[in-house]
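Deliverable D5.2: sample structural annotation.
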Amino acid sequence: MLRLSPHVSPVGSRGGGEVTDGHAESSDEMLMVRYKRGDRAAFAELVRRYERALYNFALRYVKSRDAARELTQEAFLRVVRRAAEFRHESRFSTWVYAILRNLCLDELRRFKHRNHASLDAELPSGGALLDRVASDTVTDDAERGVEQERLRVGLSRAIDALPDDQREVFLLRQLGGVPFAEIAALTETPENTVKSRMRYALDRLQKELCEYEEYARALR
């Protein structure tokens, strides 16, 4: 069976610091510390790391590209305004996703009727399957390209069709790499309930995509 694991690597977060070209790369949290000390380049690096992932997250929430862009920009503006509130021992990724989530919820309260325009071109990354499906790689195999597009569209629609509470947990975990305990705190929901919602979301996606199982296996 097609398996979408709930234990995915964080996307867009580099909290532990990495080594690139022989140089230690600053963690998100250290970049915030540097920014609070006046280093504007540190903030620019945070924007580079998170802009696309946050935009995709907002897009899945509000179903409007224009609104998603505005909300992402507003999230970064709030990071600037509230920089003094950030504590080094906290995870920047969780903090910024919490800010954006609240902005998205406010947007949905103002506009109760969601725009369900096609989001086929805006599939978020996160997890092996999603990364491969959203890939821009061009293939010479026309038939394979058609099947890949069908899988991508099917996955996009399946995510959009999830109940709101399940989709929220799925996006925070799969796209944002936010730990279950922190999702529970963000949503004011017991952690076991959060994990159950993730399992239900994965089960629903697995059922929706069962017809693509053989192709998904071939992509691995």
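Annotation notes: The CA atoms of residues 31 and 42 lie 5 Å apart. The chain has ten helices and two strands.
The annotation will be released with the project's public dataset once the embargo ends.
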